[in-house]
Amino acid sequence: MENNVTAAPARGVLYVHSSPKALCPHVEWAAGGALDRAVNFNWDVQPVLKGAMRAEYYWEGTQGTGARLASALRGWEHLRFEVTEDATPGADGGRWLHTPDLGIFYAQTDTAGNIVIPEDRVRYAMEVAGSDAFELHRELRLALGQAWDDELEVFRHASDDNQVVWLHKVG
Question: Which InterPro entries match (predicted)?
Answer without folding.
Answer: DUF3145 (IPR021491)
